[in-house]
Write a structure and sequence with these properties.
By secondary structure, this protein is mainly alpha-helical. Helices cover 66% and strands 0% of the residues.
């Protein structure tokens, strides 16, 4: 093709990568495919100046060259769909793809990129081969070991893995982002996050945690347990006799809102910012987690909270199923309602300056119970119960709702519950006595106010009841406890850096009070779009049991996913890969290219599914990964990386 030339090592790398894949074979008329004449598509392709963005002919010729002996024929319909596609803006899919490839090659440091590939491949090929086998499993929905023989024989296998429905959900997300014009906003936020030290630090600490996982294997069961929990939440409504999917309902209330209230998460950003502000508070919180874990109280807390969801404010057992349907409120929800109702200026003299009734009550509770000796001296907490009753008895003059009398007995239930032993130290972390400027109790009460005011308390109560006793929660508690008490500092660093990263995500980007500019807010809207889409939810509900099956399949790479990831090389070696991905995500035009290609129904339908009577692109790619071709390609990559290193 005659176009403006932009020769570069990137373009040369593209040409060199193409040549090994063209296995020249004789034409039907006897001509040698190696004879580079005008009729040979390999002769017509010129990658030294990138892909032609003005005509689809070079993309078609490029595929014809690679497919010269028919080895890649299952991909032909997908290439045809790409050439014929018309995107939402009237442009062509092939033009978007050419622009994406050209820009990626122009910004990528190919020498450094292939150095990274060489680092991956030099790990005994283990990591890359694991990745290839993982791809096979997610295409076909079966452990790779079960697929080796039929794949080697070229058998067409149904693509029943989680990949296709997950991509279908991603397609719905891409469509929503384009419909709402959110592309520029997401690219802007991604660029800001790429330069935020707190966010980068959280990512680095998470990588450190993964790399240290082989020492104790704490993370190994988490993917399986977490997906099992998600499946239970998906089936929870039916199991408990509720006419609803608890997981979807909780996400919808958090992200979208209902007829009875607004979405909860946007309103939670300001008080969450207040709670997380300051590294001193974060350190105090981690210190309290460590103390509770060493005392065995942190491990017990989920079960103790679960118990508060099974009884009402009077301590009587709740009916099975949905307590709200029976007109009952659990003790946990009653305590939340009580705190929200009393979080207002007092109409009686509380002393020591202006405080809300709820804050005064929590501070007094902490003062009385923080010292275990005092708690023991109170015997059955009768003194504290009498104090609470006297204080609450004067609330009527403060204009509190009359139903507060229904919530007040829940204090007795709490005081008699083992949960008190674990909750009080967390209360101390919020009050931070003796630490000037570290008191976050008002912000914590504001968080609870939002939960109750926006109608999320019943969902929170149901979620605790549904998941508190699941292994995934126990695993996360163990991870937090081990991290907080870590002697080598790796896990504790992860915990503190993670808190700093979360704080950076909820804080306004401009440092002001507009929480619509917070990085997290930019991702809440697309997430809300996904939850609102019945099609996206259906795709995710299809994918989830398929992931669960793979996680429980004996000998599957998916089931050993954390161990495989923990074998990743260090961050420095992977920097070129991260930089290349970052360049794509933060560029508005590139992000738009990707989104438009992903959201096109006709194109993605052909690429992902094709006709049921033949092998299509995804199945073909999965077979290549599983029949040994993928491993051979790893060897080619290592050879090419070494070649680049020598000539550069």
């Amino acid at each position: 093709m005659t176009r403006s030339h932009r020769p570069s090592i990137a373009a040369a790398a593209g040409l060199a990568a193409l040549l090994p894949s063209c296995q020249f074979a004789p034409f039907e008329d006897g001509r040698d495919a190696g004879d580079l004449g005008d009729s040979n598509p390999c002769y017509r392709v010129n990658l030294l100046d990138g892909l032609d963005e003005s005509s689809p002919e070079e993309i078609r010729d490029l595929f014809d060259c690679v497919n010269l002996d028919g080895a890649f024929e299952p991909a032909a319909p997908s290439v045809g769909a790409l050439v014929a596609s018309e995107l939402r803006d009237g442009g062509a899919g092939w033009a978007r793809l050419a622009a994406l490839v050209n820009y990626t090659l122009s910004v990528a440091d190919l020498a450094a990129l292939f150095d990274a590939v060489e680092v991956l491949a030099d790990g005994g090929d283990e990591l890359l081969v694991d990745a290839l086998h993982l791809g096979t499993e997610w295409v076909f929905g079966r452990a790779h070991a079960e697929l080796e023989e039929p794949l080697a024989a070229g058998e067409v296998i149904p693509t029943d893995g989680p990949l296709l429905p997950l991509v279908g959900a991603v397609r719905e997300g891409a469509r929503w982002i384009l419909d709402e014009g959110e592309t520029a906003r997401l690219a802007e936020v991604a660029a800001a996050m790429a330069e935020d030290e707190a966010v980068l630090g959280a990512g680095e600490a998470a990588v450190s945690l993964l790399l240290s996982n082989e020492q104790h294997g704490l993370l190994d069961p988490l993917p399986r347990d977490l997906v099992d929990t998600l499946m239970r939440l998906q089936d929870y409504g039916q199991a408990e006799g509720w006419p609803r999917n608890l997981l979807v309902d909780v996400l919808r209330d958090l992200l979208v809102g209902t007829a009875s209230g607004p979405p909860v998460l946007p309103d939670l950003l300001p008080p969450l910012d207040g709670v997380l502000r300051g590294e001193l508070n974060q350190r105090i919180f981690v210190d309290q987690v460590a103390r509770l874990y060493e005392a065995g109280l942190l491990q017990r807390l989920p079960a103790d909270l679960h118990a508060l969801t099974l009884v009402d404010a009077e301590g009587r057992a709740l009916p099975a199923g949905d307590p709200a349907a029976a007109g009952s409120v659990s003790a946990l929800e009653a305590l939340l309602l009580l705190l929200e109702a009393t979080d207002r200026e007092p109409c009686i003299d509380l002393g020591d300056g202006p405080r809300t009734l709820a804050r005064f009550a929590l501070e007094t509770l902490y003062d009385i119970t923080a010292d275990p000796g005092d708690v023991e001296a109170l015997a059955a907490f009768q003194g504290l119960i009498d104090w609470a009753a006297d204080l609450l008895g004067g609330f009527g003059a403060c204009g509190l709702p009359p139903e507060i009398d229904l919530y007040t007995p829940a204090i007795t239930v709490l005081l008699e519950s083992p949960a008190l032993d674990s909750l009080i130290p967390f209360l101390g972390a919020a009050i931070a006595p003796g630490e000037p400027g570290a008191d976050r109790l008002p912000e914590l009460l504001e968080v609870l106010d939002v939960v109750v005011r926006d109608g999320f308390a019943p969902d929170l109560d149901a979620a605790v009841r549904a998941v508190a006793l699941d292994p995934s929660v126990a695993g996360l508690v163990e991870l937090l406890g081990r991290g907080a008490t870590s002697r080598d500092g790796v896990e504790r660093e992860w915990l503190e850096a993670g808190l700093r990263g979360v704080a950076a995500l909820v804080r306004p980007a401009d440092g002001g009070e507009d929480y619509g500019t917070a990085p997290l807010s930019a991702f809440l809207r697309p997430a809300a779009g996904l939850v609102s889409s019945e099609r996206a939810v259906a795709e995710l509900e299809t994918a989830l049991p398929r992931v669960q099956a793979l996680l429980h399949s004996e000998g599957s790479v998916t089931g050993d996913l954390v161990s495989a990831v923990s074998r990743l090389p260090g961050r420095d070696e992977l920097e070129p890969l991260a930089a290349l991905f970052g360049d794509v995500v933060v560029d508005v035009a590139l992000l738009e290219h990707v989104l438009m290609l992903v959201e096109d129904d006709e194109l993605m339908s052909e690429v992902l599914r094709g006709n049921t009577d033949r092998e299509h692109l995804v199945g073909f790619a999965g077979r290549l990964l599983g029949d040994g071709t993928g491993e051979q390609f790893v060897g080619v990559l290592r050879w090419f990386a070494e070649l680049l290193r020598i000539v550069s």
